[in-house]
Amino acid sequence: xxxxxxxxxxxxxxxxxxxxxxxxxxxxxxxxxxxxxxxxxxxxxxxxxxxxxxxxxxxxxxxxxxxxxxxxxxxxxxxxxxxxxxxxxxxxxxxxxxxxxxxxxxxxxxxxxxxxxxxxxxxxxxxxxxxxxxxxxxxxxxxxxxxxxxxxxxxxxxxxxxxxxxxxxxxxxxxxxxxxxxxxxxxxxxxxxxxxxxxxxxxxxxxxxxxxxxxxxxxxxxxxxxxxxxxxxxxxxxxxxxxxxxxxxxxxxxxxxxxxxxxxxxxxxxxxxxxxxxxxxxxxxxxxxxxxxxxxxxxxxxxxxxxxxxxxxxxxxxxxxxxxxxxxxxxxxxxxxxxxxxxxxxxxxxxxxxxxxxxxxxxxxxxxxxxxxxxxxxxxxxxxxxxxxxxxxxxxxxxxxxxxxxxxxxxxxxxxxxxxxxxxxxxxxxx
Amino acid sequence: xxxxxxxxxxxxxxxxxxxxxxxxxxxxxxxxxxxxxxxxxxxxxxxxxxxxxxxxxxxxxxxxxxxxxxxxxxxxxxxxxxxxxxxxxxxxxxxxxxxxxxxxxxxxxxxxxxxxxxxxxxxxxxxxxxxxxxxxxxxxxxxxxxxxxxxxxxxxxxxxxxxxxxxxxxxxxxxxxxxxxxxxxxxxxxxxxxxxxxxxxxxxxxxxxxxxxxxxxxxxxxxxxxxxxxxxxxxxxxxxxxxxxxxxxxxxxxxxxxxxxxxxxxxxxxxxxxxxxxxxxxxxxxxxxxxxxxxxxxxxxxxxxxxxxxxxxxxxxxxxxxxxxxxxxxxxxxxxxxxxxxxxxxxxxxxxxxxxxxxxxxxxxxxxxxxxxxxxxxxxxxxxxxxxxxxxxxxxxxxxxxxxxxxxxxxxxxxxxxxxxxxxxxxxxxxxxxxxxxxxxxxxxxxxxxxxxxxxxxxxxxxxxxxxxxxxxx
Lengths: 431, 474
Hints:
- The complex is a heterodimer of chains A (431) and B (474).
- Chain A has 431 residues and is of the alpha/beta class.
- Chain A has one domain: Amidase signature (AS) enzymes (Alpha-Beta Complex).
- Helices cover 33% and strands 17% of the residues of chain A.
- Chain A is built from 12 helices and 13 strands.
- An 11-stranded mixed sheet of chain A has the order 2-5-4-6-8-7-12-13-11-9-10, sandwiched between helices. A two-stranded antiparallel sheet of chain A has the order 1-3.
- In chain A, a hairpin with a 2-residue loop joins strand 12 and strand 13.
- The relative contact order of chain A is 0.15.
- Chain B has 3 domains: 6-286, no CATH class; 293-406, no CATH class; 413-473, Arc Repressor Mutant, subunit A (Orthogonal Bundle), CATH 1.10.10.
- In chain B, helix 5 packs across helix 7, helix 11 (413-426) packs across helix 13 (439-452) and helix 13 (439-452) crosses helix 14.
- With 474 residues, chain B is of the alpha+beta class.
- In chain B, the strands form 3 sheets. In chain B, strands 2-5-6-9-1-10-11-12-13 form a 9-stranded mixed sheet. In chain B, strands 4-3-14 form a 3-stranded antiparallel sheet, with no helix packed on it. In chain B, strands 7-8 form a two-stranded antiparallel ribbon.
- Classes of the chains: A alpha/beta (431), B alpha+beta (474).
- At the A-B interface, helix 6 and helix 7 of A face loops of B.
């Protein structure tokens, strides 16, 4: 085993925990510094999900991806800041304070994997691991000007990922360039019997930049209302340059997009209300010193331990699953979800990848989005891929107001390779 | 009021005796172990852990489904049942809700009015929660400890239609079900807490009451009998039965109203997103069922010539049936009588299971009875000595050794005649009474002879012999 020292100048507050002396072994990622989002279990290293309620929780086991990273020789240097339990789009919802955007400290890095993106963009690490429930890898990748991939659902084991919304989320790689991302990705894929939703589709691909004959679908909805026209313009230029490399762009529509955001928020809050119920003070979290009956003690504990946004989503999800409302909300959301899947399936009969902006706008100013609904609306372009389970990535494609813009590429099930190649072609062609 | 029909349906939770837990590889053999030693991230519900389905548990549940003539769903599904309780580690239980593994079965039982079919609504799989251990008294120093060793033990829940008509019939259903599960080798009825029952009971035309968490077979009949009386009394007084959940207090044999409105749960069921739907209907074809209680009963009648009543008793539990077959060889009828009528009585008296009686010792005892070496009375004495030794944790003596040590061999004919002569000489008054026609005098004389031989003579035989001798003297 070798060791390296890690003492980053973390002026953007990318990390919740750093490891001053890191041991690492041999392997394809030997000595590569990797930051891991703080909702991924690391044996012996505090894992808080940026929540007060998990303060002091030290997992007795490694998440599957962490085991794979260690086996590949990676040096895990720290745990990154995030929106509490992944619930947010800015990394402002952290019990440990916000992460700043390395490109402009007045702005957010995006979220919820904002710490991972900022650590990469600031050059503190070679690459990072994030998780993406509704855009949590792609959004901060876009805002910080790096590459981030949400893999096809099932391709990376979720064992050890502290669940926010199990049916939507995937762990994925983040890096400054496509090759690094690809190398990191090839280490973390593969079947894991401990995750029943895991699929035996290991990724072992070297990106190629030849995209001649590639058919790109460009959905109207990705350039519609709510999308900053300047952002739309930059992304259209990016698609033009892909065409200049031999691809063909064709317009398409995703009519189910109008249900996507509601379906997403109903599903993720429902699952979250159940996932987060275990944090009741009996096993985790600082005791609040109550001597009340256990119902009241639970209530006190959860009020003190969870942040406002988490409590909001738990209440929303509890409501959606309640007897008498299940049919009107949760079940309807699943129907809408199927419509999104059907739309993708139909579009992918004619095109190989779908392209559009990752986010409707550039990184927000800190505190700019105070209305939760306005915040939720900014997820509109990223949630469809999670609802359908298809792979999607964000690759930098230019700037507006000197802030980076992400080109989002969405692929067919298990064709993560193809969107990685497309991103690689863009990256190489643009360079 | 007395003739209002009683309507009972049962929900039975049985722990399956798989080696590992429902969703992880922890051992299920946790009894008599330190609390929280049979646990891992999965059954502790640690953040980030995920359930892995135990195939064995599915096979066991399918076996039960097949034995109870159920239809296996092509696609069944695990769901989460959400509620807060300290021993529920994830604050939800993984169970099955609207898509259970098996549905629409039946079980034949010996009902109140002869053989009857009880319909099975559904069978589903779930995990057992942990266990709360309440310490101290209610009024002071009360606290609760939580043990997660039990968390994740596989359970099946079997739900019946409201087909049972009396507490006794409910008990009979449970006995039959238990025997069936034992024969399938999926369940160990002797493990503490391996079976728990919720019962729904109503009197025709009145509201239904649910009695929760009855943890013994006897408890089910007791709780239901209490409820029938309680509900009848309410109606007799012109009151109505309230629809509610009640708790059975085993120690007092009563049910008490247990849940206030504010504690009522909305379980917010939804499909478990960490598990895929189960498509296991095709596995059923490969499952071979063993001989079940009804078939074994028929075989005991035809193969051993056992009476239908004895056959029913002897096939009522797997171990009992196996015990009988191990001792039946020499004289099946004698073995049946001695197992069903004598041994079971002695076992029940001591709260023992059939395991307490070593089969080879019992076989030896039967040989002594059959060869007329000992009287029935001595045989019972030997049985008791063996079981008492077992109770004291001692190695029981062999029946032959007991016979020699206590001199229990039947007194021989010559010795008996000599003893009779002695008694006739000593009890002249009684002899005269006998000649005067007082038949009680004969019984007295028999008693005196029995006293002299310390009971080692057959009283019937003695009676005849004594009469012969006295009558000859006239």
